[in-house]
Amino acid sequence: xxxxxxxxxxxxxxxxxxxxxxxxxxxxxxxxxxxxxxxxxxxxxxxxxxxxxxxxxxxxxxxxxxxxxxxxxxxxxxxxxxxxxxxxxxxxxxxxxxxxxxxxxxxxxxxxxxxxxxxxxxxxxxxxxxxxxxxxxxxxxxxxx
Length: 145
Known about the structure:
The protein has one domain (2-144): Chitinase A, domain 3, CATH 3.10.50.40. 21% of the residues lie in helices and 34% in strands. The longest helix is centred in the first third of the chain and has 21 residues, at 2-22. Strands 1, 2, 3, 4, 5, 6 and 7 form a 7-stranded antiparallel beta sheet that branches. It has 145 residues and is α+β, with helices and mostly antiparallel strands. It starts with a helix and ends with a strand. The chain is globular and about 40 Å long. The protein has helices at 2-22, 91-100, and strands at 28-32, 35-45, 58-67, 73-76, 83-85, 107-112, 134-144.
């Protein structure tokens, strides 16, 4: 399985890089202990405060998820702002939200390789194919430790 994951990561990296370049988006890659994750982010609004993120941090967010390859919106929380324990979210959020250093009141766009979202598992309820690369536009409304 690790060889398959590495191979898919290389494919995802090419797709994300091409998307960012063709849309003239300057994004930063999330670094995890000195290793590139392949998760890219753009801080749209930094927010304020000095809250720290841990795996038990509760975040209240609004978000929109889009399939990068088609532009199809798969979910949006325009009408409500759910709260999650960071350590129980997609791995891409666990690394991308703290890694981007977005603060309370801030907005960030995350570009998640498939490995950090749903991986090789299609999500028919959401209309996602296997190895879906996702874009999340996230507004952080509150951070509670």
